[in-house]
Amino acid sequence: MASSNTPSSLLSPPPPRIRDILPKLRIGRYIPGPNNSLTVSLVSCHAINTGVTTILPRRDWFNFGCYASYFRFNGSGEMTGSHWLDETGLLSSPIILTNSFSVGPCYTGIFEYAVREYRDKETGLVDWFLLPVLAETCDLFLNDIGTMAVTSDMVVRGIDLASSEPVKEGNTGGGTGMMCQGFKGGTGSASSVIDGVAFGAETTYTVAALVQANYGAKRDLHFGGVPVGRLIEQEEAAAAAAEEDVKKAKDGSIIVVIATDAPLHPTQLQRLAKRATVGLSRVGGWGSNSSGDIFIAFSTAEQIPRAPDFSWKATVEQKVSVVQDVTINALFEAAADATEEAIYNALVGARDMEGPRGVVVKALDHEKLKSIMEKYL
């Protein structure tokens, strides 16, 4: 992972995560992965409270695709490339997350990178086709979205700098200017490790989730089933009028990206993507009319060649292994758990932010959260 943060922010310690703040909180029954995150490249433009998150399914995403699928829980949003996912179940693109007005430059940025790296070296011409995948949520309350500050260069740089470092969370990348359930939201990630068996040999599989959380109302916020948002609202009744502008903001959206190394085919991956809905509902999201809740899942287990030799003969060249459906439940459960925890991490990783209208959206108070949860854990 790499970031274009300012030098001062690079010196700041990373924000705490939900397991640091509430070590007794039970989130599923599986252990987290080594970084407890989905590895991404993050590039953010903090001056205007917006940015870009760049996720590479694999380093050579251009030549070798992944099986993938998506699920639309509520469709007030955009995910490009979804028709091709429906048609073939193949992902041959980075996944870009940004704000609603930056879909165009991010789409262009993927093409600019691909043209730079994969045009014919002798002629300089392009002889391939590409359908970029990117998704958006709307940060207009905290970002002067009309400046259209995101550029295609940010995407190119994000792909160039991608690495396997843990994900920066909160006010970073595409999540920089996002709000979540009445508090400052943003980018969050988590992962779960499950046991498996591959051709008789014991193994493990990881299911990771990354969220761009920009949805919901404070009154619906739950941590581990505890109605934290409602309890905080009761404590802060006197300050309710000051928060009226935040409550009037359009209910936003959430994008969830689920990645796994378990061998799943596209139909299974769509089923996996659907389980993000369970994690979302645990925290307090229910898919309002104006919310764009779109989830994509991909598997890195198989490398699908981009351009095998064309033939009119139906040709079989590759054997594909897949998890048996009757053994898939742990993956479903892990996807729900990772989504839930990723949203928690987006909330606790965020910091207060002032928007262009002069209104400050507060981050979730860690001490207040701990004080409430101590009564239940």
TrEMBL record:
Translocase in keyword set: no
Gene Ontology MF terms: aminopeptidase activity
Domain of life: Eukaryota
Pfam families: Peptidase_S58
InterPro entries: ArgJ-like_dom_sf, Peptidase_S58_DmpA
Keyword entries, A-Z: Aminopeptidase, Hydrolase, Protease
PANTHER family for the chain: BLR5678 PROTEIN, D-AMINOPEPTIDASE
Similarity section: Belongs to the peptidase S58 family.
Protein name per UniProt: D-aminopeptidase, putative
Organism, as annotated: Talaromyces stipitatus (strain ATCC 10500 / CBS 375.48 / QM 6759 / NRRL 1006)
